Amino acid sequence: QVQLVESGGGLVQAGGSLGLSCAASGNFFSINTMGWYRQAPGKQRELVAAITSLGSTNYVDSVKGRFTISRDNAKNTLYLQMNTLKPEDTAVYYCNAEIKSWAGKYDYWGQGTQVTVSS
Question: For the chain, what is the HEC assignment?
Answer without folding.
Answer: CCEEEEEECEEEECCCCEEEEEEEECCCCEEEEEEEEEECCCCCCEEEEEECCCCCEEECHHHCCCEEEEEECCCCEEEEEECCCCHHHCEEEEEEEEEEECCEEEEEECCCEEEEEEC
